[in-house]
Design goal:
Layout: H1 18-24, H2 26-29, H3 48-61, H4 67-74, H5 80-99, E1 103-105, H6 116-120, E2 132-134, H7 136-154, E3 163-169, E4 177-179, H8 190-201, E5 217-224, E6 227-234, H9 247-264, E7 269-275, E8 279-282, H10 299-311, E9 317-324, E10 330-332, E11 338-340, H11 347-362, E12 366-371, H12 376-389, E13 393-395, H13 401-410
Parallel strand pairs: 6-7, 6-9, 9-12, 12-13
Antiparallel strand pairs: 1-2, 3-5, 4-5, 7-8, 10-11
């Protein structure tokens, strides 16, 4: 058999770190409506042209390719040939993203399959930009990367279950032993129990051991609590206004928390509630696809729905993690109509919202609020909520939100639970 050999030609694609590229594209893939603050239903963020532009920026200034590879692509100057090389490389990257299962072409309304190269590289594609859809695999990966990055910034290389300072029997035998008392789980320390019997019977013992109540010794363990959490995520219009996208970082934090619970705390539960004019529960798996809208902030309705979800849970800890940047400005009336007032803190809206906070306190539900704004009246309102339900109020920014949320959640490891 004859073999025919050819010259190996290296490709810039060989030097591409796909995982790093996906992280650089996370803002685009988790698009929240920030590109069009007036109508969040726009799909421009999910066009192939937007993906092409984002990849181009990542290649040139994102550090996903070695500097010498970028220089080879561009040559001595940014000429026409360099542009063609970049277009071809980006086309190959888009194809690899589809082959890897991170994106899939959106169905074309005319029945034809969308093609990435038509929109990005100046091809003769249709006038309407072709779209793409983010897959579950991509969203799951972005949650994993967000969790890894957040834990790295916290200086935590590993994490485990919710451990508390309480000693209890039958959980994990990592502590000392104690004499059995009525009510303890019968997690016997066999050797210590038999030794007690032998000592009590003495040298005159018979062929059998007569076990008495006072001989019983049980092993202690660290009590590991379980936690039910509802993330209340504000998706009112203010989350993307004023030149800052606050919604995408909040989505990224929620995805990281979901990854943490699924991987390391399988006994915990996580639910997601979006609140705006009203409130609805959304599957966590759909979090990466939700967007903000031109809505007011119905905090009371979000708290009410979160409380109902948590009241069905039988966990040691039940908590609401509320992420918001706006004051309560809407209220669902008994007849179902929405009362709205965006000017100042409406006394009716505030009083009804605080009444629902009191209901959460009566149900034993903790409310921790992560505030992305510093308005004086709003700060006073948030502190009142924290005081009523013995929770915490964190005044943070989109850049530090993730650290605060994860630190608060991991702090439950050392919380004393009775």
């Amino acid at each position: 058999m004859k073999f025919k050999y050819g010259k190996f030609t290296p490709s810039p694609l060989d030097d591409l770190d796909m995982d790093e590229l996906m992280s650089k594209l996370s803002d685009l893939l988790l698009s929240s409506g920030f590109a069009d603050p007036y109508f969040s239903g726009s799909d421009d963020e999910r066009s192939m042209q937007a993906l092409y532009d984002a990849i181009l920026e990542a290649l040139l200034s994102g550090g996903v390719l070695p500097e010498e590879t970028v220089n080879q692509l561009l040559g001595d100057q940014a000429d026409e040939e360099a542009g063609k090389r970049l277009e071809e490389l980006i086309r190959q990257i888009m194809e690899r993203m589809q082959e890897s299962g991170y994106i899939t072409p959106a169905p074309d309304p005319n029945g034809s399959e969308a093609r990435g190269e038509q929109a990005g590289a100046g091809g003769n594609g249709p006038e309407r930009p072709t779209k793409f859809e983010v897959t579950d695999k991509a969203i799951d990966f972005l949650g994993y990367r967000a969790l890894r990055d957040l834990l790295g910034s916290l200086g935590k290389s590993s994490f485990g279950r919710h451990d508390t300072r309480d000693q209890a029997t039958g959980i994990e035998a990592s502590g000392g032993t104690k004499a059995y008392e009525f009510g303890d789980t019968l997690n016997l320390d066999a050797s210590a129990t038999v030794l007690n019997v032998v000592r009590r019977q003495g040298p005159a013992r018979k062929d059998t051991l007569d076990l008495e109540y006072e001989d019983l010794v049980v092993a202690q363990g660290e009590y590991q609590s379980s936690c039910a959490t509802v993330i209340m995520l504000d998706c009112s219009h203010s989350m993307i206004l004023y030149g800052e996208d606050r919604f995408t970082p909040a989505k990224r934090v929620a995805l990281a928390l979901s990854q943490l619970i699924r991987q390391q705390y399988p006994g915990d539960t996580l639910s997601l509630v979006l609140f705006h004019d009203s409130a609805e529960e959304v599957p966590v798996s759909q979090l990466g696809r939700v967007k903000v809208g031109p809505y007011y902030t119905n905090t009371r309705e979000g708290l009410r729905l979160a409380r109902r979800i948590l009241e069905r849970q039988r966990k040691d800890m039940r908590q609401i993690v509320m992420i918001t940047d706006g004051k309560p400005s809407a209220l669902t009336q008994p007849d179902g109509r929405i009362y709205r007032n965006a000017f100042g803190l409406d006394p009716l809206v505030v009083s009804e919202t605080l009444r629902e906070v009191a209901n959460c306190r009566k149900a034993g539900i903790l409310i921790n609020t992560f505030m992305l704004a510093r308005d004086y009246d709003l700060v006073a309102f948030v502190r009142k909520v924290a005081e009523m339900c013995r929770g915490k109020a964190y005044f943070t920014t989109p850049y530090t939100l993730g650290q605060y949320v994860l630190m608060d959640y991991l702090d439950k490891k050392t919380r004393t639970v009775h």
